[in-house]
Design brief:
12 helices; homodimer; Aspartate Aminotransferase, domain 1; Aspartate Aminotransferase, domain 2; seven-stranded mixed beta sheet; 38% helix
């Protein structure tokens, strides 16, 4: 039997509790949606002022060099790289997750074609966040070379589906809906053993679980900065390419920011000899600059500590739900096993949508995803054990009122 | 003989002079680079605070609906549309100019293929801003269907080059380097008479010259919001598609923001039945929100008035340079004819780079473009006739010191 007092004791011993003060959250709100839009770092207000008033307003065009705007995609990429086991200059921040998937998919397909043009299958998960599938469809239709998309229904299906015809596999490291977490190293090994390449979508894992792209021998990764990394609404996405592939091909969204010498105004494209070749056009500097505020908070801690508390909080959320809400119609769809759990908990209920709305009215902000899924995100840097206790009490009341 | 007194008299009668107060410019600076990075509207500071502190910090995920984040690309597109002769829902703000070119190029090529698959030539200008050429190259290489890029050297070459093999023509409405302005209606007519489609790059004309995309019978247009429109560094770009083509094809960067029902999480892509199909991934909301500040200033005036003052200022800059700097090595490369002049003046000089640096040290901010080009942008809403007088006096001193 877990009690509120027990939660308070855990809070008193929580070494990450000090970080909450670096975020600004409205009074009376328990925010369980940091997996969709991360909370605002306090520093973001000041950072925006500096960028807008000083860099733009006063220094004007000079800020491209003086304020380092031009180098921001790589500089931020290297900071984020520290959280995901990247080497220097393997990561950039640019454009959107969807567009970055298009770039690395074109890269992966091109690299495979150089080796063996008979591999024509791209494997993805039916349950992935749909934009990944949509971008694969758009790419395949555009190149019109007989590629086919094969959708797998469960993670276990990958081993049965992959074979010598598979060119590329696209997987969500953590599933946006269920919270299922793939084992990165063993999945890379499986995919590589069949001669295929793997693109990791890190949208729901970056800033939520420890990631080591190099030691797990990954190929490509893309992901989002505005969820667990708290980069701000719609902030540009990240893209990582293992250094062995960085100059193996030229990606087709070949805008001037990816050019070897952008200011030479050459009449033909020559890609940069490094990760910059994954850049395309001029980036939204104000939004991009704010990403640094969230990342700098993560760089003060370490992902193992974040993971430890994340698992404690998701365990607590699962256990308390079972203790307090038994018989009230909830079905857990997030894996119980730690090694397959990301940092959110999803509960299915026939009235899921109405329940989420009722929770929001009580200041407990989660979100709803089709079909019937109540999704509750856990962000260890600004949530306490007591927050989880209170959230479950509200959930219980809502469910009882529902009956 | 033009005198400083004459400039002061013009300023006293200038009906647009009142707008300068809506921009924040540093003391002692004459800013002739608004064609590269527009000055900061005063309102941008307050707007950023509202978006960052209230919408992100307090309202959090709720702002996607409550603050209209989700609809921002179309809402801003419709505001910009008023400046360019667009109908309702023909314009969006999203991604970058480079990426938007890729989308409309794919659209234009697809539409042509539906009619006649033998047209395999894409015409562009050797002198265009290079990213346009780079994106065309990337697209052609990716689809690998035998398309060829034909570069024309002068605007007059278009008539000789276009024929029944031409699929698509990509032109800069105003050339980034020379300031040459194409006649939109007659060029559309020429291109259409050969059965080709035309994509206008408006980067150096939107907010600078009057544009009427519908009455000129244009097909597609893309462009930039951070130059003459003062949208902020790297702010997302615009994209316009004539309504006759809006649903004629599905663009290949088919991310979830372009889906017919994005929140249904459907497993396959169905494009929205409107201009939203040109969207792709989640947009950088803070940068995007600031665009409105600049556009709202333009909506208080009209583009004919802006154009009138623009031509007076560029005339003044050209005439004063000839009067004050005769024999000092400058060559005008911007067209003298009003109908072929955008809103910047470019002067070639063997020591162009050093001259621009010396001008910047004196607080006269223009920029340098290869080869040897001193580029001076004229923005009628925050420049005075006296500013031009003073800028030319500085230029004269720099040239004399150079000798």
């Amino acid at each position: 039997m877990i009690t509120q007092e027990q939660c308070q004791q855990w809070d008193a011993k929580d070494t990450l509790a000090i970080f909450k003060n670096q975020f600004e959250l409205p009074q009376g709100v328990i925010y369980l949606d940091g997996n969709s839009l991360g909370a605002k770092p306090r520093q973001a207000t000041e950072q925006a002022q500096a960028v807008i008033n000083q860099q733009w307003g006063t220094d004007l065009i000079n800020s491209w060099n003086k304020a380092g705007w031009w180098d921001l995609p790589v500089r931020l990429g290297n900071k984020i790289g520290q959280l995901i086991g990247a080497r220097e200059n393997e990561t950039v921040v640019t454009d959107t997750t969807s567009l970055n998937l298009f770039k690395v998919l074109a890269a992966a397909v091109d690299i495979q074609q150089q080796k063996d043009n008979r591999r024509k299958i791209i494997i993805a998960e039916r349950d992935s966040f749909p934009t990944d599938i949509y971008m694969i469809e758009g790419f395949m239709a555009l190149i019109n070379q007989g590629y086919q998309l094969q959708l797998i229904d469960t993670p276990a299906d990958l081993a049965d589906s992959i074979n010598q015809h598979t060119a590329v596999v696209v997987l969500s490291h953590v599933n946006y809906r269920t919270g299922y977490l793939h084992n990165m190293a063993s999945t890379n090994e499986l995919v590589h053993s069949h001669g295929a390449l793997l693109i990791w979508d890190l949208c729901h894992s970056i800033g939520a679980v420890p990631i080591d792209l190099n030691s797990s021998n990954s190929d490509f990764a893309i992901g989002c900065t505005y969820k667990y990394l708290n980069g701000g609404p719609g902030a540009p996405a990240m893209l990582w390419v293992h250094h062995r592939y960085q100059t193996a091909f030229s990606q087709p969204l070949s805008g001037w920011w990816g050019h070897e010498k952008p200011f030479d105004m050459a009449v033909s494209y020559t890609p940069a000899d490094n990760i910059r070749r994954y850049l395309c056009g001029t980036q939204p500097i104000v939004s991009m600059s704010l990403i640094e505020c969230g990342v700098d908070i993560f760089l003060q801690t370490d992902m193992q500590a974040v993971r430890h508390k994340s698992l404690q909080l998701t365990d607590l959320l699962i256990n308390l739900t079972e203790q307090e809400c038994a018989g009230l119609g909830l079905t857990l769809i997030t894996p119980r096993k730690h090694e397959h759990r990301g940092s959110h908990v999803s509960l299915r209920h026939p009235h899921g949508y109405a329940i989420v709305q009722a929770l929001i009215a009580r200041g407990v902000i989660g979100d709803y995803r089709e079909p019937e899924v109540i999704r509750l995100g856990v962000t260890p840097l600004y949530l306490s054990y007591t927050d989880i206790w209170q959230a479950v009490q509200h959930l219980k009341q809502v469910l009882i009122n529902q009956e």
